[in-house]
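Hi Y.,

Following your request, here is the sequence exactly as I used it, all 375 residues.
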Amino acid sequence: MTHGSSRKHRAALALVTAAGAAIALVAAGAPAMAAPGDYTVVATGLDNPRQLTIGAGGAVYVAEAGEGGDGPCLPNPENPEASVCLGATGGVTEIRGGTQTRVVSGLPSLAGADGSAATGPSAVSVRASNIAVLMGLGGNLETRALLGPEGAELGTMLTGRIGSDLSVAVDVTAYEAANNPDGGFVDSNPNGFTDINSKRWMIADAGANAIVALGGNLPNQTVAVLPPAWGVPPWGGDPIPAESVPTNVVQGPDGAYYVSELLGFPFPVGESRIWRVVPGQAPTVYATGLSNVTSLAWQHQTLYAVQLTDGSFLEAEAEGPIGSVRQVVPGGEEHPAVVDGLLAPYGIAIHGKTAYVSTGAILADAGEVIAVDLR
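Below is the corresponding structure, written out as tokens. Let me know if you'd prefer a different format.
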């Protein structure tokens, strides 16, 4: 998280800063999960867990945004009297055979003093022993420069082999600086991706409000900029545009890409969409009627979506943002809950008939991964 006051920045920042009450609740010793559902907890004590992926043998990998550190520090955009500080606390945890293991550590992370609502590793992909880790930022090249060399990997894609040092493969923030696809404030917060191949990725940049294809031997390109929705502001009156903030992108069984959406201020409930994107064509709406969607995953012909909160960011619940996993009805406006009552759920990955979901996505040391039976 970084300084800045653009509407785009606030929209991207809303991905992880809507739950101050939840942070206080967990700090007081309450469980990370807010309500019962049909699931099993398979990993605990995670630092701001975000997107997940499935690796060889059904192993689950979850990106942990970390818990910040001792600095350098920047002003907290949500609280000018506080700061967010850098630390090498981001990483990736593997969940295999009932055991969780941190397989990547020491990646940059920005967070406040309590380690909550961090920015750092946001998504991960694993192929055999090769790993790609997408790093969030929430700023621009100037913001990143203020953090010095320790923060230089924020806003990039890191690749390498598990057990070895990772290196920058593509610089997502530099692409935003050079191209600014939506023509607004220059801001980059890479949040989710899918592999095109081992050296090229389709990336949802929540700060840039764009889907971009980067890396490999082909030219880097903007694939889609999504149009806004509309919402009534808290003070009433006519609806105003709510920016379309892409949070994740996955490839569907038809070969097209599907993009989850979290809407910016005034964060209208029930207006988030899932987009179908074919490179070279205009994006089309696949489903409507959702709220604050942060991740998608396919099981054969069925798409599942995670709602970070089922309510409005402007009406925070006492226990924090309570969200759900939804089975998406193509073309529909209502989508049945597979499991609900989850505290700040975020990422989803599916293996066989089991969905793995990260929860407590804004919590240091208290995030979890749950396994949900889809049968």
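The chain is about 10% helix and 50% strand.

Thanks again,
Q.
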